[in-house]
Amino acid sequence: MTLRLAALFPALIVLSCCLSLAAPQETAPEHIQVSGDVMRGVLVKRVAPVYPPLARQARIQGTVILKVVIDKSGNVFEVQLVNGHPMLSPAAMDAVRQWKYQPYLVNGEPVDVETNVQVIFKLEGEPTPAAPDDNAPGTGPGQVPGGIPGSKPLQGVQTGVIGGVIAPATPGDANHPATLRRVRVSANIEAALIQNKVAPQYPPEAREQHIQGTVVLKVNIDKEGNVYHVELISGHPLLAPAAMEGVKQWKYKPFLLNGQAIEVETQVQVNFTLTQQHSESL
């Protein structure tokens, strides 16, 4: 006698709310960008450049801007010229290669850093050279960190550690480094800090209509790891409210930047998937 289990049991709808924070196959960048304002606060050894004799004789002065990469131990291991007079640039580069920084910590771990350095050459009795544009990447107050090298400037949750500053920083000076209110952190880094993940309820109307898809949210997380703001980026209108309600209940470990807890902005993906399974038995 042939029995069709499908006649005895309705089709089983298996709900799988796959909550993902980033593509796991993405890899972290080799280094992050941090502005000169903050890096000046962790500079422990500064070697002054030797004023080139020919430049002094020609009364040449100005500011040399360099892009430098600092390793996890605080040593400068790469220096590239961004802007500056050709008679001043070599001396600036030779000096900066000898600078020493404290290790820069992200979430308690030292990381390689890319930053901009300004070296000012001023002749005695002459006015101070004009400062570079404060809007230049990595040179202005509050530009810390400035983004992930090689990542897209928008979205802020590209592969890597930190994707840019959201909230303005407190301006710093030589004795008081700039401080941040909130930074943009990649989703794969935040995934490692999540402590409590609440699965959203699949909306009955969406399930009845066999609607599935991915909801992308922008979330703000406070210093204690609580989600205090959720904003919809994209997603089906029948799925988005449930995703937002679920994510509001998530809990993270505090994110540490250079040893200090800081607010975070990141992105969250909530995937709603319906799978139908039909079983037959003879």
UniProtKB/TrEMBL annotation:
Domain TonB C-terminal, residue spans: 36-130, 187-281
Keyword set includes Protein transport: yes
Keyword terms, alphabetized: Cell inner membrane, Cell membrane, Membrane, Protein transport, Signal, Transmembrane, Transmembrane helix, Transport
Xref: Pfam families: TonB_C (PF03544)
Subcellular localization, as worded in the UniProt entry: Cell inner membrane
Topological relation to the membrane, as annotated: Single-pass membrane protein
GO biological process: protein transport; transmembrane transport
Disordered: region residues: 126-149
Main location: membrane
GO cellular component terms attached to this protein's record: plasma membrane
Signal peptide start-end: 1-22
Superkingdom field: Bacteria
SUPFAM superfamilies linked: TolA/TonB C-terminal domain (SSF74653)
Composition-biased stretches (Gly residues): 139-149
Keyword Heme: no
UniProt similarity note: Belongs to the TonB family.
Protein's name according to its UniProt entry: TonB C-terminal domain-containing protein
The species this protein was found in: Candidatus Sulfotelmatobacter kueseliae
Organismal lineage: Bacteria, Pseudomonadati, Acidobacteriota, Terriglobia, Terriglobales
